[in-house]
Amino acid sequence: MADGKNSQSPGVGAFPREAGRPAAVTNGKLPHAPAPAPEVVRPTPPDVLEELRELQGQAKLAMKDLDPELEKAVGFTHFDTTASHDNLITVLTNRNDIHQLASQTLVRVKSREDKRSYLGVVVRGPFSEPDAIPANSTMAIGVVIQGKKLAYTFDYHGRAEIELLGEESGGALVPPRYRPRPKSPVFLLDDEESAKVLGVGGDLCLGRVVGYDRMEARLNPKDKSILPRHTGIIGTTGGGKSTTVATLIHHAQAAGIATIVFDVEGEYTHVDQPSDHAAMIEGLKRRGLKPEGVKNLHIHHLVGRESRNPRHKNLHGFSPSFSSLSPYAIAEILDMTDAQQERFLKAYDVTKLLLEDFGIFPKTAEDRQKVLDVDELSTGYPRMTIQHVLDVVSAYIYSLSDEGRAEAKSKPKTSSRKRSQPAEDSEVEEELDEAAQEPVAAHGPVLYSEFRTHPGRVMGRVRAQSSKAEISWKALSGKLQRLRRLNIFDVGASSRMKHEEMLTPGRVSVIDLSDTDSPQINNLVIADILRGLQETQEERYQKANAQGQSVTPVLIIIEEAHEFLSASRISQMPVLFEQVARIAKRGRKRWLGLVFVTQLPQHLPNEVLGLLNNFIIHKITDSSVISRMQRTVGSIDESLWERVSRLAPGQALVSFSNFTRPLMVAVDPAPVKRLLVD
Predict the structure, then answer these.
(1) CATH fold label, 68-189
(2) pTM of the model
């Protein structure tokens, strides 16, 4: 063939020249006509066609038997191993469905082999594992670390661990008796069904459940089994506790709950104003919310102390009543020694007798009934003031002085007729009668209360119940004098705390203790107001119950609870704790819920933690604290506790009695203004 090197023979993939089209001209010459193209398409042999038809029919039959429900499965249960644990199931999924088994996702497992259905939650994973070889093999490691050079990688699948919540039986969730069989399909629950299973419905929203785009952690504020069962808000500084409290105040007020806040730093004295914090405003915008202050805010501060919002329109100065405080609680809070407490209680009893001697209390039959009803482990003696007690203590100190002893010796003895009377009360009355006739001595105890009009009568009662140890009496006087100099008790009759008004539906009452600088004062005030609120709510509950009506729910928030109820204070103040415990226990039935807020949960004793049923736990970095909380709050699984030390600000582990299981929640930003505290 001439010039064969320029000729081109058609082969596989070459296209024949179109008919009627002239050949291309090469070097001015027409090339030789090409050889005829070989036959490319041949007819399929009949036996092969028959075989293909048979395979097609088998495929159609197989597709017909395939359950379309399995198309919705996101994984299948794996075989158990010697390392398997009760209530934990391993689920395998293909690489395309790994993202659907995110942590805390709720799933349904249908064990088709034994026709059982289970609900579970992803607690570990999802993890990615290679299909053909172990993840720790040399080949798998080499492929990954040579990622810059190799485009090839192994195909992989996902693995997740799910914790069984229960077995579905007759529309209810019951404890599982068995495990799902291997290769049981696993399905996702939609947001609506997940919310129903988790029990997160209600009008009061805490925030968005982590792992769900549209699910919110909600509570029913009218459910007696939730808020009145008491809550702990716990976490380190900067974890978001104060924001959570501010959000809770706003939402509780909107739900018509009477909210009382013991605010030791004055952070919440401006919650009637909308938030002006840029990050909060942006966060509210992302949640479709807007800054908004609470309505009906009232601020209470001690008389003689300042408030962090001094120009607020509803500002109330108050002065606790000494007579409302249990003498045992006073002794504990003042850290009296046993000897000092013994003398204090003796002076307290003598003061009660003198109040009747001077016609101060009781005056009527009704008053005498009140005396019989007084429980001094929870309250004090009516109409008694700290000055009354101080006057009696002064009289005791005088009676033990040289001058007092000399005066007692020089006093004339009673007649033989009077001395012959055996009754002790008669002897006391005689001595008091004589003392009342004596002129006021130029020297004697210096008295400041109503008792100053008849010091002889006071000395008569003191000598009738004599005592020793002048040093202990003087030490007691010093502690009581320091308490009196605080000038917080019985300052003006119009400064009494009006507990009834504080329990108005939708009212927010902030007890501003930011200007006290004394944990002792704070504890006295908190104990006094708690008792008053509990008694008032008890009366309201009884009245509403008799009329077939419901009582207003009350939420009491105690900031820096570790200062009020620390382990060391509980050991020193069992009476005070017993008061709180009594309020907590009775409050559950009376719609009175307590919220303890603390950044130092390790200082709270087990007795206090035992009062709590609900927890909002922000970031905690101390592993020993986490371990203690883990032992206390047994309903939270280990996988969630492992995340507590890494929580971002605003995130919290939330466990409420109405939730099926604890949840990770991104707490809503506070719509109210909160003062930042260093």
Answers:
(1) Elongation Factor Tu (Ef-tu); domain 3 (2.40.30)
(2) 0.76
